[in-house]
Amino acid sequence: MERAELTIVVLVLIGIIVSSGTMYYTATVVSNVSTVSDDMSTLRESMLNLTSTVRDLATITGTLAEAMGEFTQTLADLEARLAAIEASLAAKAKETLIVGTTDGVEATLDPAQAYDYFGWCILQQIAETLVSVKPGSISGTDFQPELAASWNSSTDGKTWDFTLRQGIMLPDGTEFNATHVKYSFDRAINLIPDIPDGAPANLGYDQIINYTEALSRYTVRFVLNDAFGPFLGIMACRSSAIVDPAYAPMDAQVNYTSGDPRGSTAAAFLAPYYLSRWERVGDKDIEIRLDKNPYYWNATSEYPKTKTIIFRFYRDFSTLRLAIEAGDIDMAFRHISAIDALDLEDNPNVEVWWGPPGAPLQMLCFQENHEPLNDSRVRKAIAAAINRTAVCATLFPGLANPTYSMIPPGMLGHTEAFTKLGDLNYTLTRSLLAELGYNETNKLEFDLWYESSGHYPLSAEQALMLKQQIEGSGVIEITLRPADWPSYRANRNAGIMDVFIYGWYPDYFDPDDYVFLYWASWLNLHYSTWSPAAYAEQVALYNEARYTSNTTLRVELYSQIEDISVEQCSIVPLYLMPPWAVTKPNVKGVVFDITQDMRYWLIYIGD
Amino acid sequence: MGLRSYIITRILLTIPTLLLLLSMVFLFMRVLPGDPVYLHFEKKATPEQVEQMRHLLGLDKPLWTQYIDYLLGLVNFRYFLQHGYPNLGKSMQNYEPVGGQVFSAFPATLELAIYSMLIASVMGILLGVISSKSYNSVLDHLIRGLGTIAYAIPVFFLGIMFQLIFGVYLHWLPTGLRINPNVQPPAHITGLYTLDSLLEGNLFKFFESLKALLLPSLTLGIVLSGMFIRLTRTNMLETLRLDFVTAARARGLKESTVTYGYALRNAFLPILTMMGLQFAMLLGGAILTETTFSWPGLGSYIVSRINYRDYTAIQGAVVMFGLFVTLVSLVVDILYAYFDPRIRL
Hints:
The structure holds two protein chains of two kinds.
Chain A: H1 3-95, E1 96-101, H2 117-126, E2 131-133, E3 143-145, E4 148-153, E5 159-164, H3 178-190, H4 199-203, H5 205-208, E6 209-216, E7 219-224, H6 231-235, E8 273-281, E9 284-292, E10 308-313, H7 317-326, E11 331-333, H8 338-344, E12 351-354, E13 361-366, H9 376-384, H10 388-395, E14 401-402, H11 426-434, E15 444-451, H12 459-471, E16 476-483, H13 485-494, E17 499-504, H14 512-515, H15 527-530, H16 532-546, H17 551-568, E18 571-576, E19 580-583, E20 587-588, E21 604-605
Parallel strand pairs in A: 1-10, 1-11, 15-16, 15-17
Antiparallel strand pairs in A: 2-3, 4-5, 5-7, 6-7, 8-9, 9-10, 11-19, 12-19, 13-17, 13-18, 14-18, 20-21
Chain B: H1 3-31, H2 36-40, H3 47-56, H4 63-74, H5 77-83, H6 98-133, H7 138-152, H8 155-169, H9 193-200, H10 203-240, H11 243-250, H12 255-285, H13 287-292, H14 298-307, H15 311-339
Helix pairs in contact in B: 1-15, 6-7, 6-10, 6-12, 6-15, 7-10, 8-10, 9-10, 10-12, 11-12, 12-15, 14-15
């Protein structure tokens, strides 16, 4: 190839390369410009979006601020409402007293049947009697008017006229009057054959009352078979509560009906409270609720102090103690154990209330059908070997008081008759038993029974101490025998137990309801069979005291009964127990007296 | 045998079982010492009153007549439909229908049993699995020790400790009862407070019921969990050594899948049996817990009725327990057949 041709080829190649490069560069630039243009448009779009977003954000911020404002307001409202609820709860808490107990209604809340402490306790709050024992009473015989404004008795003591308060309304709008009273007592007596275990049967209403008569709308007359000294005591009993004929059939007992508190009691709602809820599972109470009775005749007195009382039922005393300590309940009454109650006295979060020793009595009973217990010397020998003071000091320190009479101190006719036998008087024990051939080698042997299911306080410990004391004489040997309450009661009825510890809570507060225990047939001790002369004399004295209103004479007669009782020792009185309750410190108004009644309408929750 | 035939056979087998139980309870109650008629009276009754009461309670009839009357009463479906509970006779102490009493006490026991079993099984199985997984380590020894303590601790002691700590000192939980005394219990639908509260749509009552349930069910649950811990651990240790577990691991399955999906499922059958047995035991054996926490269940009911030799009430309660135990056994058997088809063969 020529040099010129080579130059041309080179130039063409250079041209091609340069032009290609230029074209590539131009295309790239154009593409880049297009991309930049696209980017610019995207940027513009993004800018627009951003502006919109910022605008939205501003709106959202505004809304948020508004919402925050509303939220703050709502929060403030909630706080205010919470404070109001708290205040309302606090106020409500003050209106409601929660009572824990291990007790329970034994069968019904019908005055014609109920014959147990707790049943009577509820009836006391929801049912009204003509008269009642004054709160704080020392003797138990200071009566105050309730539904009766006044009363008087004839000189022979056989006729009692009660003038009723006027204007007392029942919830159904009818006015309480003399026919209600007559109906209540006629019904109680009419039901005695059908309810032999009921209170009216046990208190002998049919023997005491001949008939009841409505003299006028507001005057009712009771004509008795004989003058009856403790008649007002009977009138103050829960079995004398006025019933509502609409709920209390003349010929049938009123029983618990699930979901129907009104239909579950025969009581006329005339008292400070009415039964608003009663729930049982099986035959155990789960909840009893009492609400303030808007028809209460004495509402102007500002009773009841607390609007609602709720009873909650615990299985045993230790759980009840934990509940009051934990603050689950406001008040624990019947039965935190006495020892626990003493222990709680140092606890600043609770308050322990003690009442005077009075109503519940512990005694030692002898089955006279079991020889040689039919010999009064044997019974006296055993009674002389007892040291009541030591038992009280050991088992019930500062609580129980030894008693040497069936009639409590402060009550008409109280004596110290049994001090004649002395305490730990082994000389007397040995000499009396020696007369019957008993000595260190030929010991008197018997079973001492005690209740083992908690019906009586520290019954096993009592029995053990009594065994040690009596065996200390060296001429007696005792075998301890336990039984749960139902069996214990059945054993008593069957006359199985040689010697047994028993308790008594009176129905009304009069010596009449204490001294008869020495020969009470239901204790089934066969005293009248083995000691007929003494029995006849005691009953004659008792009836004389019962059917007179001469107080001096009654005191003398009861003293004579006690003297015979010491010689016979059919029953030996041991100790009297006080009542106690444990409450939160802000619970006020607990009043105890000899009756051991808990008057819940006096109780309130303070600050 | 198919699953359906198996279930039908098992149901039919429960009938003679129940009949045997009923007959035994009926006869044993009547040969025990103590006459319910005498225990009924507060004071000594006259022979006429005793006879009247004996007649009223139907105890003056020959034994076989009483037995037939009792069985006829039980299968009286009209009575069941009218009252919502079977005719188990009337209480010899207060003449109330025993069926009503038993049915009102039973939900409390059932609720306690369900929650306790829930706590016991979750806690027991989980700890048992963890223990078996960390075999012979400190954790394993700790869990085993815990299981032994839980099993050995008296239920009432643990209950009182919980009451003291959470009730008295911390004030977090109530010391007893089924619901806070300040709160009205939910309306009775099933009798299970937690469920009834939810059905009522009341969350406040639900939480209050739950709070009251917590301590008693935790107490029972912890005590029961001891057995489940040991049982789960032992069974898991055996199962984890089996070839199929090694094979599952070799295939690269996650350890949790191997443990819970394969091993536990295979080790579960004996645990299920024990759960059924324990649940049945719980219904009858929670008496101490019921007493400690004042829980108004069937256990407390039976104890109080035994004191009064209330034949009909005890019979009723035992029949109820028997029925429930049979039912639980039936459910366990069916579950067993479901988990292990070889049983149906």
